[in-house]
Amino acid sequence: MRIDLHCHSTASDGTDTPAELVRNAAAAGLDVVALTDHDTTRGYAEAIAALPAGLTLVTGAELSCRLDGVSMHMLAYLFDPEEPALFAERELVRDDRVPRAQGMVAKLQELGVPITWEQVARIAGDGSVGRPHVATALVELGVVPTVNDAFTGDWLADGARAYVPKHETDPFEALRLIKGAGGVAVFAHPAASKRGRTVPESAIAELAAAGLDGIEVDHMDHEPATRARLRGLAAELGLLGTGSSDYHGSRKTCVLGEYTTDPEVYGEITRRATGAFPVPGTGGA
Ligand code: AMP
Ligand code: ZN
Ligand code: FE
Ligand code: FE
Q: Which atom of ligand 1 is found nearest the CA of 147?
């Protein structure tokens, strides 16, 4: 069983449409794939309609959170997408991404970059707009060679010249909302230090005490030593440890199934969830 529990589509900042994502997941030999777009569930219907036989879809989302000034991401799995409290918070965060991206465009214009909101809006399409879309515009304009090169102190990294913060949920509130919608909560790439500041282990312990189910251990932004430390921390705190690609199509270098989750851990996630069931593929549209 090959299980990849963290993937993005054009419903946020991935480059595969939800239908392409599930087809590519099947072609990559995955048995289970999770759709975890930033702050939205809008990709679900298309992914389910296209889901190939033999592939199971885990519905989810990656919720933007902030603890003591540090941005962090909370993966939520198999919650009820219509539960009103979580829905309202998700929409609030997603909607706030628009004025925030417009603010980053304005800052870039002040820095002399000939970027426009129309360009970023075209790149983002229907997706929750984020820094990777702005970064793609910078690549189109020849300002930086790759999306990754836009995430520096010169441009879009946390606190950089053109960075603008967005509304982000307190993670303890996020846990309450996810649980209230029957979901399972996994702290995404908790030690991805190259993206900026990360939360201390003491905070992970507090989140565990508040109902966090697991932490993402195997992830491209964690060095081998970091993974070993996180595996130990998960065992110590009684947390599940997952692995996943954080696939973004061509916007990131990782490939589907680059890291995977143990079938027993996956089984435990499905047993804990009460908001939704994994969706078995029936052949696709
Ligand atoms: P946002 O949610 O708009 O603040 O943007 C966060 C997104 O930017 C995440 O999906 C990350 O995958 C991406 N990101 C963050 N840091 C980097 C980086 N150093 N290189 C490439 N992408 C990054
Ligand atoms: Zn992303
Ligand atoms: Fe993330
Ligand atoms: Fe992600």
A: 21
